Amino acid sequence: MRPVIRDFFSGFGNLFRKPRTVVYPKEKIIIPEGSRGIPRLKLDLDSLEIICNGCGDCRKVCPENCIEIIKTVDENGIEVLDEFYLDLSRCSFCGNCVEFCNLDAIEMTYRHQLAEPDKNSFRLEKLELIKQSDYSLRDFWTK
Length: 143
Ligand code: SF4
Ligand code: SF4
Description:
This protein is of the alpha+beta class. It contains 4 helices and 5 strands. The longest helix is centred in the N-terminal third of the chain and has 13 residues, at about 1-15.
């Protein structure tokens, strides 16, 4: 009987509490620090070159197998990154790619709004992943 009474008062008390959710998309919230949104590829701030060298460590630790890396050989015969694809339709935002990157070349942004009319739009290429730096601010509504 006691749990019933306890649950009754607990439920009754909720009538006077502030809602714990927001009315999407009308209300604005600032998402918590450390939230994991779309991963982005970082640039070296001095050279403005992409940091990623295409080593593939992130691809190996990605549990959803959503990273594809294509490398090429430059004029000096050195393997360099050619293209980097990330399929957001499969990404679980676990953060493994960030955690295991030895070059600190990839990080999670705060971009969470992912609705797209076309499934192919979820497959981001290198340049699009660099552009995600626009979403490093903790504004839920940035799009
Ligand atoms: S993001 Fe990091 S781990 Fe992934 S390929 Fe580039 S350098 Fe390697
Ligand atoms: S956040 Fe996780 S699932 Fe998404 S690309 Fe990185 S390792 Fe893969």
